Amino acid sequence: MNEELITEIIKFALKNKTEKIENKELPLINLKNIMNEELITEIIKFALKNKTEKIENKELPFEIGKSYFIRTVTYHLIGKVKKIIGDFIEFEEDTISWVADSGRFSQAINNGVLDEVEPIKVKGGLNYKTFVDYYEWIHSLPRIQK
Asked: How many CB atoms lie within 10 A of CB 140?
C-alpha cells in the first residue's frame, strides 16, 4: 500500500468519515481488499492517539499542585490544579470554591480576603477557553462559606 493512500485513510478517519478531504472526493475503497481489518484498526488507533496527545500536551500556564484564582466570562473560581485533560483543567477534590463576590480585587488577590465564597467538596474542572484571566492563589484555600 502506498504512503499517499495511508495518509488519505488517516485523514479520512480524523475527519469523522466525511466524504471529502481538502476538497477532493475520497474514493470509496473496500479496504478489506487491500489490507486486513487488524491493520486498518491499528492505523486508525495510531492516528487518533497522535491527535489526542497533541490536544493533551497544550502548554497552559498552570502548574500541577498549585492553586489559582480564575475569572471566567461569568464567574470566579479558586482551586488546586490536579491535572490538565484536553481543554479542561481538573481541580483536586475538596479544594474548589466558587467566588460569588471577590470584594476589592487587590485585597482578594494580595491578601486572600473574599467577600462571598462557597466551598465545593467534590472534584471539578473548567474549560480553559472560558478564562478571562487567572492569578496564582498563595493563600489558604477558602473552606468556610461566607
From this structure: 8
Q: What pairs with residue 20 in β-bridges? A: 25
CB 118 within 8 A of CB 97: yes
pTM for the structure as a whole: 0.61
- 146 residues of the chain, pLDDT tens digit each: 556 766 676 666 665 444 444 555 555 555 555 556 677 677 776 666 655 444 445 678 899 999 999 999 889 999 999 998 888 999 999 999 999 999 999 999 999 999 999 999 999 999 988 999 999 999 999 999 99
How far is residue 87 CA from its own chain's centroid? 2
Contact 85, 100 (CB under 8 A): no
- Cell numbers standing for residue 66: 498549585
Distance separating alpha carbons of residues 43 and 40, to the nearest angstrom: 5
Would you give the distance in Å from CA 3 to the centre of its chain? 32
Cell (9 digits) for 8: 488519505
Domain residue ranges of the chain, discontinuous segments joined by +: 3-56, 67-136
